[in-house]
Amino acid sequence: xxxxxxxxxxxxxxxxxxxxxxxxxxxxxxxxxxxxxxxxxxxxxxxxxxxxxxxxxxxxxxxxxxxxxxxxxxxxxxxxxxxxxxxxxxxxxxxxxxxxxxxxxxxxxxxxxxxxxxxxxxxxxxxxxx
Length: 130
Hints:
2,3-Dihydroxybiphenyl 1,2-Dioxygenase, domain 1; Signal recognition particle alu RNA binding heterodimer, srp9/1
């Protein structure tokens, strides 16, 4: 039976990506299937796999068709998490696709992979994010 697994992010610096995503989402590097080009990250509470990190030579896409949405419940929480993620190494990319009054903030991880921090109290903003 076919099952949906977990998202995989291509990265150019695996140790840096492990450090960022484990701190950003309270994940742990399980060592499961670990190699020089792969890491599997699990939820810290043991509830299952959350994210795969794969060494990639291709550059991150500026406007990828698939991306991660990280969810928060309030605008204050969104502002706090955006600040925390920037402290961990994320950055705010130049983003030209915001709709009026967006419920999301676009960030890029240290490898340039864009993702959104979505404020569910204001969702949906009515437009595509990344």
